[in-house]
Model the fold of this input.
Amino acid sequence: MAPLQTFTLFSLYLSLVSTIAITANGSFSQHFATTKLTPNAQKMTRLHFYFHDIVSGKHPTAIAIIRPKSAFGMTAIVDDPLTLDTKPRSKVVGRAQGLYALASKHNKALLMAMNFAFSYGKYNGSTLSVLGRNPVLDAVREMPVIGGSGVFRFARGYALANTVRFNLRNGDAVVRYNATIMHG
Done:
């Protein structure tokens, strides 16, 4: 008799759980049933700024957090200024915050996981997120913009980067970014 009672209790349990799940899903979908499609009202924004990657001196903006025996795997965390000009003291319009890692054994290509946090003008408080491959020895590199916040909510696009200045002695670099972004 015990197997029959167990089977009955198990069947009752399944019936109850199924009913609760169906009810929960029904109310969830009803909540969103009034969602309406709107015309595609996207904006295109083009940004031009300079990324100052300072790895030397008393106040570096990029610090290696992983230093393997070979260059492969080197990872740095960054809080680099974004400026209007190549000069280190030019107007700061935001910060590049994130990390990059040397992710190729065969050539100098970085994995970039970066947020561009803007702090000036109409983009103040807005961010762009870049995640992609940066083959640093190429004259121009293209990386995807995969998201954003604030003015750049629902952002997608691309960022073109080219090195303006690289100091072979200390590793400091200035990189020009031209970003084209579609956003809501």
